[in-house]
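Task card 7
Instruction: Convert sequence to structure tokens.
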Amino acid sequence: MNNPLRLCLVLHNHQPVGNFDGVFEQAYRDSYQPFLDVFEPFQELQISLHISGPLLEWLDDHHPEYLERLAGFVAAGRIEIVGGAFYEPILTMIPSRDRVGQISAYTQWLEAKLGGRVRGMWVAERVWEQSLTQDIAKAGIQYTILDDFHFRNAGLGPDQLHGYFVTEDDGHLLKIFPGSEQLRYLIPFHKPHETITYLREIAQHHPDSVVVFGDDGEKFGTWPETKQHVYDDGWLQEFFEELSKNRDWLNTTTLTDAIEHVPATGKVYLPDASYREMTEWALPVERQVDYEQIQLGFKQDPRWSQLEQFMRGGFWRNFRIKYSEANEMYSRMMMVSQRIQQAADRGIQGDDFERAQRLLYQGQCNCPYWHGAFGGIYLPHLRNGVYRALIAADNLLDKAIGKEGSFVEASSSDFNFDDRPEIRLENDKLNCLVAPSAGGQMYELDVRAICLNALATIQRRPESYHRKVAAGPSNSDSEVASIHDRVVFKQAGLDQRLQYDSYERNSLIDHFYDDDVSLHEVVRQDAEERGDFIQGVFDATIRKNPNRIQVRMVREGKACGFPLRITKGVTTDAGSSILEIAYLLEGLPQDQALHFGVEFNFAGLPAGAEDRYFHRGHERLGHLGTQLELVDVPSLGMTDEWLGLDVEWSADRPTHLWTFPIETVSQSEGGFELVHQSVVVQPHWFVHGDAEGRWSVTMRLSLDTRVAESRLAEQVEQASIG
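Output:
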């Protein structure tokens, strides 16, 4: 052929902030290293490679020889390094200043480490809004890759998508390649010759075409069953051989080479979109089910090929509606971003400021902010990774601006962007966020010494794939399948573990129950709620003195048919790791007891480990997934020896206590699995009013990190000696 087809193979290798070292290492052994081993002998082949910042930093620390090897391929012109935003954020989720900052910082880091010039970038999850164009261009990027789905949504037909396009925003230009969804499903799940046949047909009908495969590098070895298929069974070797044999009409080349030798197909403005599957996951569950059913119903219709391009799912930003916990992480990230911008406006500079900015970028890593075929928001270690970075950034910002020593502060603002004020209580040890308009609940509690949000919990919700879980395991063929098509149960009996919460799993949740309610009924959400305080709006005031702050919240409502008034206060002191939580109930009947409980949820404390346990004094009461039913006790402790954290709850009157775990049945690339999310600790009382119909209790929540701080001091001392 006189005008050969150009095939751009673009790999996206990524591991998120907060992932385990063992996962990084396994992916390196199963995907990243063996791919280069197979690729190296095929001297005539070229690829484009994007490696996310969290992964490349880990590789730099643990396998510097891999970076040296990559630099050699770059110098030889065989691999083009594709840039991106440093810590793989969804660009539409972060402020413009952080978009430009992340992209520019990563370009500089890549060019310094690997050589070569970075001209293009990977857009995380291909989440696109047209206004991104100018920020990407301002950061010095000339091209990016999206999916052909974006272009079909703009009205382009399949025969128009064998090249690249130019787009524009506010006078800024950017070149955009459409990645082929067909190739995403062919590679590596079908025989190599099927891909060659598909490409040959394009080459015959569309001379001088550019076709792009852009997808996860982990599908070459890390995705389930692919290591055997891709390497042991020789799929990748055979694929490269097929590419080499067909070089007379098929050139594998880089994206930059394509731009330099082929003119743009035309100009386009793309609607807000992502890859097709992501738009489906972003829908509310009920609409997601409807969407799937409509697709199934119409796929056999002869008109489907015409109808399909008009099928559109949801909008990525609505993950923050679908999962309130994603919005809480987002709003916390925005608080830090705004603080950094304010510090920059004041001329603050130095190492602490720069490290805080880098930690902000880490806290913008996209993975725990959404959910689809991957665990995403349901993976506690990823949520913890985001919060750890954001809390650490706050700590460093305090140092950068000279805010050191003991202090205590309180502020009120619409921190979570719901048009209602929240309250922030902060000292040098703790940071606490309370939502008076949402039941007066506490939804964040940062332990600053160990950078842990002890309330990074999640509500159990229906998911569209729960229909498959409820149906149970079924026989499937032995073919290697895409993650989007696999149905694998990592544990037995998951259909019995499906359970949903009627409220968010925060803390200071006020319950009224029947007198004879059992722990089992509370655990199973079968206990009927007899009050209206869980989601009620509380009036709030802040009380301050130089060393002590308090938020006081009041609401009048009903419980068990009685009009009641609840006042609750959260108090802390400068230099203290203790929250004092006081309740006053008024309007209680004197001739009848009401069953009242206050629910706390604690995250970041895993179950099933011997070094993470409940205790009273020196008596261990079981690991943190244990159901406990304690009677007339004054306190309960929770210890995580690995974190070096001891949490103690206590009250000034004898208390009944329930504890139980919150676990989700969620989907990850490995299949359906049960994931421990948080520990419920719920003191509950049978309350009688005094002569004035009043009853009160004062609780203390102590978060002791002395063990963790002692370890850190030892590490610093050893490092200084070394």
